[in-house]
Amino acid sequence: MTAEALNALALQSAGPAIGAFIGVLLGLGFRKRRRGGGGGLLDQSIVLTAGAAGGAALIVTMMINAFMGGAG
Predict the structure, then answer these.
(1) Mind giving me the DSSP string for 24-43?
(2) How far apart are CA 65 and CA 25, in angstroms?
(3) Packing angle between helix 46-68 and helix 14-35, nearest 10 degrees?
């Protein structure tokens, strides 16, 4: 896979990843504010946990698009 095709695949898959990042960021932010504590967070960081969820969503979506022939 060329760099251009990989870039197109990443751009095509960015929507769900951004949505997952924002959703986890808001959800964990509200949860931490209501209950306090940081159980279930990576290194006690909401942003790091949301970034990991967004990165995982990007990888999964890129794999799905690649196998289904979505990029190019």
Answers:
(1) HHHHHHHHHHHH-S-TT-BT
(2) 25
(3) 150
Question: Residue length, the chain?
Answer: 72
Distances (CA, A) of 19 to 24, 37, 62: 8, 24, 15
Residue linked to tokens 């990989």:
6
pLDDT tens sequence across 2-46: 888 888 888 888 999 999 999 999 998 888 778 776 677 888 888
Which are the contacts of 9, defined by CB distance < 8 A and separation ≥ 6? 1, 62, 65, 66, 70, 71, 72
Q: What is the pLDDT of residue 72?
A: 52
| CB contact at 8 A, 49 and 42 | yes
Burial of 52 (0-12, 13-18, 19+ CB in 10 A): middle
